[in-house]
Specification:
homodimer, 198 residues, alpha/beta, Helicase, Ruva Protein, domain 3, Dna Topoisomerase Vi A Subunit, Chain: A, domain 2, four-stranded parallel sheet, 7 helices
Chain lengths: 198, 198
């Protein structure tokens, strides 16, 4: 590899550090950037350098933003009595593609003792503070349906008891378009337990 | 998406322009860069900005380099009478992992009339000039074994006739580790035609 100019090697090395991009893909991407008229290393490089600039957490919901409050929390047309709790900022973006019109709270992780993630490492104190401040009637726990996500939801439910009138969890069941034949037994059990009248 | 800060959106957009990276992967990579302790948007961004800086083609072999002559062409311990002709710089790196100790010539593409790539767009004139200068006994044509690569090899063979004593082509046949059952008929035909005594 020493035959390549150092800046090419450095770009390949840095790209290789990204998840799902091995050394071969990094080589291919780097040479694509050198030749392409569409992708530009200059534009991408500048975007990367600016990436963390002025980034902060919304003082209300902890969403990543560049203003004191994010666009959702400053939107008075939204229902501020309903708070949807997610693990990561990208999940807010996912819910924004649905008809949901309440507000959010981003935990920035899940409880995971192995990874050193306890309640102090998450934005849980901020959620409790919001709940205590009043005006919230429902908190929807939308952590992932996996071990850490379920544990985090249970912990939050415990902490929020008595602070808000309703703490709910996203429905579990078959995803739309799923093939029942290939569904795992836990999902099928949840889908049965959560069956609804038609 | 408008909920995300503009620099995050810009990074996602620029990453989406890379081959094999869709909008969802670009989102995931961007948020990985925001959080990761290993990958750094600053280091990657700076590497991208520097990527094209001082890059030039080696005056001998047209390899990408930052000096007048590349490391291979300046290496007097290598066999300068043997020139291996490749389409792209990355292919030089691939051959450098083999015991090959001759020198190279990078065409920077293949003949492809549909894409507007004629002989003038490739580094063919430079190869002819090298051949005419003398001192080369063998030119190995290592363009890809596809339609454009074969056409380019034929064209080069024609152009180099009488200039060097030997113009060869990489062997075609079964790749190592291949399953004969699944080999295509053209490869099998070439493997038969090129069979060697044991």
């Amino acid at each position: 590899m020493s035959l390549l100019p150092p800046q090419i090697i450095r770009t390949i090395e840095e790209l290789s550090k990204l998840p799902g991009i091995g050394p071969k893909s990094a080589e291919r991407l780097t040479f694509h950037l050198l030749r392409s008229s569409r992708a530009s290393p200059g534009a991408l490089g500048q975007a990367m350098l600016d990436l963390k600039k002025d980034l902060r957490y919304c003082i209300e919901c902890q969403m990543i933003t560049i203003t004191e409050k994010c666009a959702v929390c400053t939107d008075t047309s939204r229902d501020h009595s309903m708070v949807l709790v997610v693990e990561e900022p990208l999940e807010v973006i996912a819910f924004e593609r649905t008809p949901y019109r309440g507000v959010y709270h981003v935990l920035h992780g899940v409880l995971s003792p192995i990874d050193g993630m306890g309640p102090e490492q998450l934005k849980i104190r901020e959620l409790i503070t919001r709940a205590k401040a009043g005006g919230i009637t429902e908190i929807i726990l939308a952590t992932d349906p996996d071990i850490e996500g379920e544990a985090t939801a249970s912990y939050l439910q415990e902490q929020l008891r008595g602070l808000v009138s309703s703490v709910t969890r996203l429905a579990h069941g078959l995803p739309m378009g799923a093939d029942i034949e290939f569904a795992d037994q836990v999902t099928l059990r949840e889908a049965l337990a959560g069956r609804r009248g038609m």
